[in-house]
Protein CBG14565 (Caenorhabditis briggsae), 338 residues
Amino acid sequence: MELKINIDGLERSVSGVTENTTCSQIIYALAHATSQRGRFVMVEKYRNVERRLAPTDRPLETLQKWREHAANVTFQMLRVDQNDAICDLVDEALPPEPSKPYLHPKQMSTSSMIASLPGKSAAGQQQQLENGQRSTSSLPTYTSTGVTGTLGRSSNNRRPPPPDYMSVMENKKIMLGAATFPQNDDFDDFQRQVSHFFQKICSIINFRADVNKLAETMTPQEIADYLVQEEELRQLLKQQKNLRAILKPMIAANWPQQYQIELKKSHKLKASLASTKEAIKKTQSDIKRVEESERELLKKLAEFKTEDMGDENSELSETSFDLGCSSTGTSTPQTLIA
């Protein structure tokens, strides 16, 4: 969609505007197209009422809010100074353009013809542009970008499209973040690291100087022995590094503490085992005592049974004797069978 914006009395058309396009993106595209630098702001004008738009406002959304009055709403891009006050636009001097190839009069655009007319003022040229061709600009997302009119350039030498607004803002934030000064704590740490690094460099330089002095005073045999010792030292340092790499996880595991923990566990297990053994012994003694009492009871029960059997036999004999004595009226005695 195209959006018409007035800049210093000249109406320009920006193509590629969507509902998500912000005022800052439109200002960026127009400033790049017109080669202007500074701070700009977009103003929404309805008849005699003007409203200043924020950089994050979306022009199409504001137009939709006006509904049937949207046709009477216009947008202007104005320059603001350091005090955030609106001031008049002043075109900055453009850099000298390179020599242009000769074009046939039929191929020349109306903008270049107007710019080449002698004795014409800027106001007259703007009036001709308003009555005739209007300059257009486009957002960075479209390839058909160009501004014709006051720039006086042909269609073959159009200004290249501006870079993407979001990428420019991201690069600007990155540059500002890199340029920020670190905090006090970070700066102190950085200063300590730098001082430590310089101390190491100084120690290395001093060591090399000492080695050079020794090399000047040593014989070839001593130098050879020294190199052998250096090689042995290097091997020993390498072995030490490997041993430390092996011992590091063992040290991190803290085996002495683990041993103490396991020793305490073993003591607890031994104590519980001893108490269990004592309980078993006590249970066995209780079982023996119960068995002895059971045997005694069985023995007493057997004695009671034998006594009961003896009493029954004596009673039977006495009964049979009494029956035999009382039968005097019969000739044959009768026997009682129990």
The radius of gyration is 58 Å. Residues 89-135, 141-156, 327-338 have pLDDT under 50 and may be disordered. The first strand starts at residue 3 and ends at 7. The chain is about 55% helix and 10% strand.
